[in-house]
Design goal:
Elements: H1 3-18, H2 23-34, H3 40-58, H4 60-75, H5 79-82, H6 84-105, H7 107-111, H8 117-137, H9 149-161, H10 169-179, H11 184-210, H12 219-244, H13 250-269
Helix pairs in contact: 1-2, 1-3, 1-12, 3-11, 3-12, 4-6, 6-9, 6-11, 8-10, 8-13, 9-10, 10-11, 11-12
Length: 273
């Protein structure tokens, strides 16, 4: 992988990890469009460390507060109901379990068959339609402070669907939050907080698997892509949270439908493979 490819893929990762348009899908589609080799699931997972760092820094105050409250709740069970930050800590923990279980069960399929362009194109369209329905049906009246166990479960299982390239972690979880009546910006904020343990564990696991893998990208390419993913990812978080306070998710719905249709058409015609 050249330095230019590494930079481009890092920018793609940073832009698409948090915008609800699927980072793993784009890291498969972009190389196919320009004739590069598929960077693979290992490259995708490791480069996510850059966007994870962006989340950690952007939400450092929230995460520190939630982490301390969660630790206190281990010794003081009453805080699990009385303290919102402690509850968020437990919600994030339990919400990570589904993606952990399904990730281990379907690891081989995710790294091989799940990267099929027909599947990615179809996932872009289907989840785009789901997002459109969630935008129309959600009441958008509840804040993150009103999050409950059912909300956390719904968004946790939605996050597990993002193991399929083309689904989008933020797209699935924000849609679940909208269906549960959360405001757009609150659904996005919790979506980003929920993503932290899942992305970190995935990247660490894949990095360990990457050691000695001569088929994977070089460490230099991974470092460059991860750096650019961090820079662009930090900007993407700030943009989306600000954008969703006054705008709907419909532009992302339209983009997903158009891109998914294009991917299916080009794959069917043999133009990309």
């Amino acid at each position: 992988m050249s330095a230019f490819e590494a930079i481009v893929l890092g920018v793609v990762q940073g832009l698409t990890e948090f915008l609800p348009i699927s980072s793993t899908g784009h890291l498969r589609i972009v190389p196919a469009f320009v004739g590069w080799e598929d960077p693979g699931a290992t490259f995708t997972a490791v480069v996510q460390l850059g966007t994870t760092l962006a989340v950690l820094i952007y939400f450092r105050a929230d995460l520190w507060r939630i982490g301390r409250a969660w630790l206190r709740s281990l010794a003081e069970p009453r805080l699990r109901r009385a303290d919102m930050d402690a509850r968020l800590g437990w919600f994030i923990l339990f919400g990570t379990i589904p993606i952990g279980i399904f990730g281990l069960i379907f690891k081989d399929q995710i790294e091989s068959g799940a990267r099929d362009l027909y599947l990615i194109g179809a996932a872009l369209i289907v989840v785009g339609l789901v997002m459109g329905r969630a935008e129309a049906a959600g009441s958008k009246r509840r804040s993150i402070e009103q999050l409950n166990g059912r909300d956390a479960a719904a968004m946790g299982f939605a996050q597990a669907l993002a193991l399929i390239p083309g689904v989008s972690r933020s797209g699935a979880t924000i849609s679940a939050g909208l269906f549960r009546g959360l405001r757009r910006e609150d659904a996005a904020r919790y979506s980003f907080l929920l993503s932290v343990p899942a992305i970190v564990l995935s990247a660490v696991f894949e990095f360990a698997s990457h050691l000695g893998d001569k088929q994977a990208a070089s460490y230099g390419a991974l470092a460059v892509s991860t750096l650019f993913a961090f820079i662009v990812g930090y900007w993407s978080i700030a943009f989306l949270l600000r954008y969703l306070t006054t705008h709907t998710v419909r532009p992302f719905v339209i983009y997903r439908l158009a891109l998914g249709t294009l991917v299916l058409a080009l794959t069917a015609s043999g133009a990309i493979s």
